[in-house]
Amino acid sequence: MSHDSRSPDPAPLSLAEVEVTARTAHAGQTDKAGRPYAEHLRAVAEGVRQRGGDDEQIAAAWLHDAVEDDALTERWLDEAPLSRRTKDIVLALTKRPGEPPEAYAARILATPGARLVKEADLAHNADPARLAVLDEATRARLTEKYTRMRALLGRVGGG
Asked: Which CA distances in Å does 68 have to 25, 26, 71, 126?
């Protein structure tokens, strides 16, 4: 199989480049507690690393909310010099409008490497210190949402 007619694929973005891209894309965005959104992305990437995730999963962690939050487009992701696996994980973690949680969880479970990234995302989202600054109704709603997603992913408890 010759690739003479095509130019070689560009070198994939390094993790440092992915981090800069994600931080730039989410610049000015904040989480529900009013903190810079990049803090969440960093925590999820670190959570993936601590759980034994590889560089493709760490890259996906940095980008996991970029398409969903309209920080980057699906076209950008499709054309980006990233591995197919990283792109597939990001797309698996991108919720579609009106999508039932069961369908979302099934897509994550069907995508190699995505569950670990979602577990790191849920762990940071459900961090009691993050939830503590929210009002009671929001805290209760989110706690229920995260517990339900953990159950759908096959993790009834924490972690």
From this structure: 12, 11, 8, 19
